[in-house]
Amino acid sequence: MKTIIIYATRYGSVEKAAMKLKSHLEGEVDIVNVKSDPDIYHYERVILGGSIYDGKVQRELGKFSEDNLQDLLKKKTGLFICARIEKEVATESYLSKSLPRQLYDAAIAKANLGHEIDLDKLSDKDLAFVRKGGIEESISVFHEGRMKKFAEVMNRFV
To answer: In what order do the strands lie in the sheet with 45-51?
Structure first.
C-alpha cells in the first residue's frame, strides 16, 4: 500500500516530523511539499501535516484539502500538526478550523507530533514574537510515542 505525506512548513519543522513519521509507516511512503501540487491518485493513504500560525495551518494546505476534498474522502487519511500547544483539545480545534470538516471527521488518525523553533531560521517578526514569549534558545521537541501511535493507526490499513 502506498502512502503520501503532504506537508506545509515555514521553517522546516513539519518536514522533519514527516521524515520521522515515515520511519514508522509500513509500505512505500513518499513525502511531498504541498507547494508542488501533489497528485494523490496512486495512493491509498494520505497524510496531511502543517504547523500552526495565527491559529490555523498554512493556507496552502487548507486550499489543497478543499480542492481535493472528494478524492481525499476516498482515501485512508491522517492529519497532523506541529505546534507548541500540547493540549489535545487545541490540536482538534486547530485541525477542525483549518481543514474541511468532512475531512476532519473522516480522518482515521489525528495528532500533534511536536514542534521545533530554530531561532537562526526565524524572520525578524517571528523571532521577536517567540522572544516575547520567553524563548531564548532553539527548541526541538518531537513526540516519538505520538508518532508511533499515529503510524500504528495508519498501518492497520496496509
So the answer is: 28-33, 2-7, 45-51, 76-82, 109-112
